[in-house]
Write a structure and sequence with these properties.
Layout: H1 17-39, H2 49-67, H3 72-99, H4 110-118, H5 138-153, H6 158-178, H7 184-188, H8 195-208, H9 215-234, H10 241-260, H11 268-275, H12 277-297, H13 302-344
Length: about 350
């Protein structure tokens, strides 16, 4: 990549709208994938939204830690407060619904449920996969694992943090690639997928140093990434991290290049959907379960049911963002501020 400036980029705001747009598009892609899956249609490449999420996550963690240096334990606390509450709520809804007979295909197992709450992969009684009660939560198991590795990297000197992080993830993947194990946890945490976090962190370092491509090259990277995803879909190639990971990295880098060069259009709705992307990711399957059941009961064609499911999933995600996620996060922030003020107060005489 050719740098556009020798000085680090100093953003005018805390919000990178390109990242928000990507979060919105990635969440929408996952909703489309699950809607198609439930209706028997083929849109498998839409699952590549997960690859984009992982690259974005690595980028964000690297940038956040550079802007506001933080110790490992406070870092992990902040990430858990951001990730866990909404996820636990949806998981509880799933378990209560299964106990009430609303999800007849969902079998309940105590160890599996406990693993779901603790972000630990446990074989599911619903087929044996390492999926939690809320199936898409498997990606959060990777997220939490990445946060643990990242927190350990924060113990290193500033310039050594990224090499330590990348080296640890590479070592894990090498262990899984060249070694053989029947341990499902070892297999899970040595998948090449985890290198997407390292790639995102690498992009974060480049961005912090002002080493983004020129906007023209960024646009070519975006078009190339989208074209690559399209080829995988049309050719019905079995997608995996080795194919989709580099494309996701190119897509993220391209958007960052456009934003750095002030060539990114202002799309407020897309930025808002980016804000709501986590809630959309968590809650959309509940909407899909209802929509597909009603749609097939009315004998509607599969594409219509899928389209209705996507719309319902996005709307429920936005509603959950406004009614659940935002209030919870606001309350958490208020408590942190109050706790900080209490610590700062001098002791009484």
């Amino acid at each position: 990549m050719s740098p556009t400036s020798s000085r680090p980029v100093q953003p005018q705001t805390d919000t990178l709208y390109g990242i928000q747009y990507l979060r919105a598009l990635a969440a929408t892609a996952v909703v489309v994938f699950h809607a198609a899956e439930r209706t028997g249609l083929h849109f498998n490449i839409r699952a590549a939204g997960v690859d984009v999420f992982f690259v974005v996550s690595g980028f964000i963690m690297m940038v956040i830690s550079a802007r506001r240096p933080i110790r490992p334990l406070p870092f992990l606390r902040d990430r858990m407060l951001r990730i866990a509450p909404s996820y636990w709520i949806v998981t509880t809804i799933m378990l209560v619904g299964a106990a009430a007979g609303l999800f007849p295909n969902l079998q309940i197992d105590l160890l599996h449920a406990l693993g779901s709450y603790l972000f630990v992969p446990v074989p599911s009684p619903n087929g044996g996969h390492l999926w939690p009660v809320l199936v898409q939560g498997w990606t959060l198991n990777y997220e939490i694992f990445f946060y643990l590795v990242f927190a350990a990297a924060l113990l290193a000197p500033r310039e050594g943090q990224f090499p330590w992080l990348a080296g640890a993830l590479l070592l894990l993947v090498a262990t899984g690639t060249f070694g053989e194990s029947d341990n499902p946890l070892l297999v899970f945490y040595t998948e090449p997928l985890i290198l997407e976090f390292a790639a995102g962190a690498w992009l974060g370092r480049l961005w912090l140093r002002g080493m983004m491509p020129r906007p023209s090259l960024g646009l070519l990277m975006i078009l190339g990434a989208l074209g690559g995803f399209g080829i995988i879909e049309v050719a019905r190639v079995e997608f995996d991290a080795l194919l989709c990971g580099p494309l996701a990295v190119a897509l993220v880098a391209g958007l960052l290049a456009l934003e750095t060069g002030k060539k990114l259009p202002d799309v407020p709705m897309l930025a808002y959907l980016g804000d709501a992307s986590y809630s959309t990711y968590l809650w959309h399957t509940l909407a899909l379960a209802v929509t597909t059941k009603v749609g097939f009961h009315l004998i509607l064609p599969a594409p219509a049911v899928a389209a209705a499911g996507v719309l319902a999933g996005m709307l429920v995600g936005v509603a959950a963002y406004e009614m659940v996620e935002k209030p919870i996060q606001s309350r958490m922030k208020r408590r942190q501020v109050v706790a900080g003020l209490a610590v700062a107060q001098p002791p009484p005489p």
